[in-house]
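Take one record.
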Amino acid sequence: MKKHFAFLILFLSLFSPPRKKIKVWLIGDSTMANKEVKAYPETGWGMPFANFFDSTVVVDNRAKNGRSTKSFFAEGLWEPVISSMQEGDYVFIQFGHNDEGKEKVGRYTTPDEFKANLLLYVNETRSKKAIPVLITPVARRNFDSTGSIRETHPVYTDAVKEVAQKNNVPLIDLDEKSKALLQKYGPESSKYLFNYLEPNEHPNYPEGRKDDTHFSELGARKMAEIVLAEIRELHLELADRIVNRK
């Protein structure tokens, strides 16, 4: 009986049609982006994220430092993504850090503009029969005097949630999940998740670095693991293509 069962499994594996290859597009800001060697050990969470899938998935990380929903579109960064997108692809959309900065000329968006821009990305993705996934802006490391993590993106996080709810878009609340992670690590140990360096600790930062926004390699991996866990929680078809899924 066991031999017959093993033969059936082998037969199905040999003659079942291979799964369609898909692409996962990442659009967003520096917290997600690939980094140049001169920026290491600063690491965007999209970098380790790309290594968690089987051979049927290609992750194409188009996130760029300093971009908002407005500037990503205005600079023509969205056009090659939507032009190349295929049916069944995924588009992970994470902005907010640069949209909320009123001093950032050309990048700042009002909350209403932010929501309209997110909806544009969602609708254009769906027009290609691809699957949009909205992600709230990841938390900054910001603790109060009692050691409690502060909310750093209240308006823009709520805006992402609103667009997701009203338009039935899968949502990953990276803001909330990353705050929980930072709280778990606490005010001091959480520095290991960010680009914190002593003077002369790394040749790229001879004067040292204290960065509460951008991640270390460890921090980027932890954020990627949150996103992967949320993909599973959402029961996206993409979850079946995660290697060593839990």
